[in-house]
Design a protein that fits this description.
Blueprint (H helix, E strand, L loop, with lengths): L10 H7 L4 H9 L11 H15 L14 E5 L4 E5 L11 E5 L2 H15 L3 H4 L11 H4 L13 H12 L13 E7 L2 E8 L2 E6 L17 H13 L4 E3 L7 E2 L1
Helix pairs in contact: 3-8
């Protein structure tokens, strides 16, 4: 079993950096071998690091282990629900906001937004609300009064949506898989991605079809790593399809 998996542009410096604390020094004393895999850049290194940590579960890596309670807030016409990635396709479902480790974290985020914007806990489903009566927070001036007519439900819903917007989960914007080109003078890789899931890397577009498959599910780490570079316009993106009619953008 691997002790630790991590990315670095300089392996020697990375190893020496782990001598800073007694726990890290103990990890190095258990080490018998150091192996490495070259990538064409930062994106490939991050993706490979995340995949290997999930697959091999190294002893000293904890933060990227699989999370089977991954959830998000889904904004519907009259309410906010907590939905789970194991039940809803997060790459396609509209009106999803935030990616949370569990239901408690999702509701805590919603409560924080409600406190900041003086939204009504009752209308958000965070606490029971009696019809026609103001909530307790309204009397404390912590709710703008959508529960008792001081603010319309439409205004309340608009403020909620505006507050959630910064947490929006972007739907996969292509019909199928794409290839993201990453290169340096000595190496070029094409990252094959579908529904925010990294399927792997190949050295040429001709090899891309060997990796195209139906994604098994939404990958939180893949989304965090890939969303910004895929949408930035700074990389060459090629749409892939079964007929091999590839279009670069």
């Amino acid at each position: 079993m691997p002790l630790y998996i991590g990315k670095s542009v300089n392996i020697r410096s990375r190893v020496l950096s782990h001598l800073r604390t007694p726990d890290e020094a103990a990890m190095l004393r258990q080490s018998r071998r150091i192996s490495w895999i070259c990538t064409a850049g930062e994106i490939g290194a991050l993706l490979l690091e995340a995949r290997l940590i999930k697959e091999q579960q190294p002893l000293f890596n904890k933060r990227l282990r699989r999370n089977r309670q991954l959830c998000a807030l889904q904004l519907n016409e009259k309410r906010v629900d907590v939905v789970y990635a194991k039940e809803v396709d997060f790459s396609q479902a509209p009106n999803l906001f935030g990616l949370f480790a569990n239901r408690r974290a999702a509701l805590q985020a919603l409560q924080t937004i409600a406190d900041e914007q003086k939204l009504c806990y009752g209308l958000l489903g965070l606490e029971p609300l009696s019809r026609g009566r103001a909530c307790f927070r309204s009397a404390l001036k912590r709710c703008a009064g959508a529960c008792c007519g001081k603010e319309s439900h439409e205004e309340h819903a608009l403020r909620l949506r505006q507050s959630l917007e910064r947490l929006r989960v972007v739907c996969w914007p292509w019909q199928g898989a794409v290839a993201l080109k990453e290169q340096q003078p000595e190496m070029t890789q094409y990252h094959i991605i579908q529904n925010w899931l990294w399927l792997g890397a190949v050295n040429s577009l001709e090899e891309a079809t060997t990796l195209i498959r139906t994604p098994a599910g939404f990958d939180h780490d893949g989304y965090k790593i890939l969303c910004k570079p895929l949408l930035s316009g700074n990389y060459e993106i090629t749409e892939l399809d079964p007929a091999n009619d590839q279009r670069a953008s």
